[in-house]
Each structure stands twice: as C-alpha cells, then as structure tokens.
Write a structure and sequence with these properties.
Number of strands: 8
CATH topology: Rossmann fold
Distance between the termini: 74 Å
CATH architecture: 3-Layer(aba) Sandwich
CATH superfamily: Response regulator
Strand order of the largest sheet: 2-1-3-4-5
Number of domains: 1
Radius of gyration: 21 Å
Shape: globular
Structural class: alpha/beta
C-alpha cells in the first residue's frame, strides 16, 4: 500500500515537472521609464519601489527594469515598451507626454497644479497631492485649532503608523536621506503598478491604465485603500505638521465633511 502510494506521488511529480519547469522559465519583464532630472527626490522613491518590487518578483518570476531620460530626449525616445511613465517635469512637458502617449499611464510625481486636475487628462495619474488637497487639509485642522500654523504634506519621515515606520527606515538605509512627498510619490507609483502586475498579470500599458483608474485599492502605508478620482488625483490621507512634528492627519476627525478622503481636493472634472 505504501509502495503504491509512493509510486503514484512519484508519477504525479514526474508528469508535472515539465509544467513547473516551463512556468519557472517564463520570467515576466516589466519596464518603467523616469522622465526628469537625476537629482530629483522622486527618482529615489522610484528606485526604492523598484528594489522592493524586484524582491517580491524573485518569488513570482517578475523582473522590473528602469530607464531614466532627461526632458531634452523625450522627442527621440521610444516609449512603446513601458508599462508606465514616471515624471518629475514641468506642466507643459507633462501635458505633451500625456497627449503623445495616450495609452500609457503617465504618473505625476511632482506637480501640485490644481488646473491640471480639473482638465481630467485621460491617462494622467497624479500621485502627488494637489494644492487644493493640501489647503483643505490645513483648513480642516484650523477649524479645530485656530491658532495652529500647520503645513500639509503627503509624507513625513517621522510617520510611523500603518507600517510607515518600516518604509521610512528602508528608504533612509538605502539612500541616506529621509523620504519626502516626492520620494513617497515615486515609491507609491511603482509599487501600485508592480502590485497590480503581481495580482493580475497585466503587462500591457493600456490595460494597466484601465485597471489603475477603475479597480485600484492601494494602501501605500497610509492605512486606507487609495484609488484615483475621475480627475486623475489619488485619494489619500494628508499629514499635518507643525514645527516639523506631526500633529494630526486629514481628513480631521469630527471636522471633515464628508468624513472621508473626498473632503480633500477637487472631486470632479470641469
């Protein structure tokens, strides 16, 4: 009986071996491109996200690559092989990229321009908060603490909740600087894309854009499922800081109306 069972298991393993060998051999390669200056802090976040995605990818047969180009080389560069374009550029350059690469997600990692959100560019994904979001966050807090002189940020190096402490530690160890709004945005853009690849096996840029705009649920070490509005803006918690110390988070409990992430920023297209 034992011998029969052993032989049956052995037969199953031998029969299945070619399948597992085939699966193991098929490594999915996913390519990102960063457009901007090489000293921009958003690029450090992109590199952090890439490293973490590749660590996860070792177990999933997925490999993530990054090209870096300056704005001067946009017109001659071939963008056809990228899952997403990550940008830290001026408004005009961002609009040109979005118009010329209409089927590719164009992540905005640096521009807080309100008008860019109201234009609702189809493939624009704004990870960095808009000025409107930051102002709404500050105003909510001032309704509770009128004499407070806070600033509103997407990220802060002393944020510790929701595994943020670990992300800050990893980033500081790798890059010897603290994570800021731009570097968090770069990390988040890469991670939400790579997590989508891992979950859905999507490697086509057009399908990725559709998924990110309609099905995304991304924590981003901020403690809630973030997703994109029709404006292309990422809904997200905002950190309120006074004298370089975190004093609160927005939406501010008891003040925000509605009491959700939709109390921050522009909700709809023009």
């Amino acid at each position: 009986m034992i011998k029969k069972t052993f032989n049956r298991i052995l037969f199953i393993l031998i029969t299945a071996l070619p399948f597992f060998q085939s699966v193991y051999a098929e490594t999915i390669e996913v390519n990102f491109v960063f457009v901007g200056e090489q000293d921009h802090p958003a690029l450090l976040g992109v590199k952090q996200g890439l490293e973490e995605s590749n660590l996860q990818g070792e177990f999933l047969n997925q490999k993530y690559n990054l090209d870096i180009i300056s704005t001067e080389n946009i017109s001659t560069h071939d963008f056809s092989n990228y899952i997403a374009v990550l940008t830290a550029v001026d408004v005009d350059t961002y609009k040109k990229l979005s118009a010329n690469l209409s089927s590719i997600p164009i992540f905005n990692l640096s521009l807080n321009d309100n008008k860019l959100r109201t234009e609702c560019i189809d493939n624009a994904l704004h990870v960095i908060p808009s000025t409107h979001m930051l102002d709404d966050a500050k105003n909510q807090w001032k309704k509770k603490k009128s004499d407070s002189n806070v600033i509103a940020q997407a990220w802060h190096p002393s944020f510790v909740k929701f595994a943020a402490r670990d992300l800050n530690k990893r980033f500081k160890k790798n890059h010897e600087v603290t994570m800021n709004d731009f570097s968090w945005s770069g990390w988040a853009a890469v991670k939400m894309t790579a997590d989508t690849v891992a979950r859905s096996q999507i490697t086509n840029s057009e399908k990725m854009l559709r998924y990110l705009k309609t099905e995304l649920a991304f924590d981003g070490q901020k403690g809630s499922n973030m997703n994109f509005r029709e404006t292309g803006q990422l809904r997200q918690l905002i950190i309120l800081v006074e004298n370089d110390k975190i004093v609160a988070e927005a939406p501010v409990r008891g003040i925000a109306k509605p009491p959700s992430l939709d109390s921050l920023g522009i909700l709809n297209c023009n």
